[in-house]
């Protein structure tokens, strides 16, 4: 039987944040799950026109999951980039509603935390077990753009601190893309401006023909 150290070592070897996820570049699946209050929360990707950080985590109340959830909470409150881009954060685990409520209330989480008891969301997003099966759910974060497309995902069960950094990187990249797209039409308009001389040449030609007619 493997020791805990050997298990963690094997997890680190297999864990690869750069692995291509089947949903990358595809429309994100819509979800309807109960939130911590027991109310049905429906997530329709792209409907609000804002980017979304959708993160799956193993267990509410555990050390790493609490740290991760609170890092997202603090980033929403403190990071100007998160505020400026109007990022929506959604957390999901297989815990029942009552446990989600306890978790949300105790940690004062300011975003929806959903209960995926039947594994519907995990199946839709191709999220498997973590730590070689020792964790019921992998720690996976999906970055979904304002059009509802999955741009990238990070699968890092042990490294709970990497997920907010991953989202921050993608928000920076998204802002750069939008800035470049906004500048493109302006450059096109500038290039089209030197059309006036053609009109002046035509006018000069008309004057020349008029002068020739008078002389004749």
Put the structure in a nutshell.
It is an enzyme of class 1 (oxidoreductase). This protein has 216 residues and is of the alpha/beta class.
Describe how the helices and strands are arranged:
Elements: H1 4-14, E1 31-34, E2 40-43, E3 52-56, H2 63-78, H3 80-84, E4 88-93, H4 97-107, E5 113-115, H5 120-124, E6 140-144, E7 150-155, H6 162-192, H7 196-215
Parallel strand pairs: 3-4, 4-5
Antiparallel strand pairs: 1-2, 3-6, 6-7
Which CATH class is shown?
Alpha Beta
Strand pairing plus helix content: what structural class?
alpha/beta
CATH architectural category: 3-Layer(aba) Sandwich
Number of domains: 1
The helicity comes to: 40-55%
As laid out across the biggest beta sheet, the strand order is: 5-4-3-6-7
Note the overall shape: globular
CATH homology group: Glutaredoxin
Instruction: Give the beta-strand count.
Output: 7
Rg over CA atoms, rounded to whole Å, is: 27 Å
The unreliable regions are: 1-18, 196-201
- Sheet with the most strands, sense and barrel status: 5 strands, mixed
User: N-to-C terminal Cα separation, in Å?
Assistant: 110 Å
Average pLDDT rating: 83
CATH-assigned fold name: Glutaredoxin
Listing every helix as H and every strand as E from the N terminus to the C terminus, the arrangement reads HEEEHHEHEHEEHH
What is the helix tally? 7
Q: In what range is the share of β-strand residues?
A: 15-25%
Give a verbal description of the structure:
With about 220 residues, this protein is an alpha/beta fold. It has a single domain (about 20-185), classed as 3-Layer(aba) Sandwich (Glutaredoxin). It has seven helices and seven strands; from the N terminus they run H-E-E-E-H-H-E-H-E-H-E-E-H-H. It has a five-stranded mixed β-sheet. A two-stranded antiparallel sheet has the order 1-2. A hairpin with a 5-residue loop joins strand 1 (about 30-35) and strand 2. Residues about 1-20 and about 195-200 have low confidence and may be disordered.
């Amino acid at each position: 039987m493997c020791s805990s150290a050997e298990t963690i070592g094997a997890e680190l070897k297999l864990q690869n944040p750069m692995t291509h996820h089947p949903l990358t570049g595809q429309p994100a699946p819509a979800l309807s799950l109960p939130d911590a209050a027991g109310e049905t929360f429906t997530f329709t990707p792209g409907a609000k026109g804002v980017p979304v950080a959708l993160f799956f985590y193993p267990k509410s109340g555990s050390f790493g999951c609490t740290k991760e959830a609170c890092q997202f909470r603090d980033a929403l409150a403190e990071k100007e980039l998160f505020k400026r881009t109007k990022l929506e954060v959604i957390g999901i685990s297989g815990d029942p509603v009552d446990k989600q409520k306890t978790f949300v209330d105790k940690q004062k989480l300011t975003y929806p935390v959903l209960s995926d008891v039947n594994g519907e969301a995990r199946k839709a997003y191709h999220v498997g077990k973590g730590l070689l099966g020792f964790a019921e759910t992998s720690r996976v974060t999906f970055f979904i753009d304002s059009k509802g497309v999955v741009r990238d995902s990070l699968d890092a069960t042990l490294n709970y601190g990497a997920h907010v950094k991953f989202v921050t990187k993608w928000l920076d990249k998204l802002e750069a893309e939008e800035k470049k797209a906004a500048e493109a039409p302006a450059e096109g308009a500038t290039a089209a401006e030197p059309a006036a001389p053609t009109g002046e040449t035509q006018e000069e030609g008309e004057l020349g023909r008029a002068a020739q007619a008078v002389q004749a």
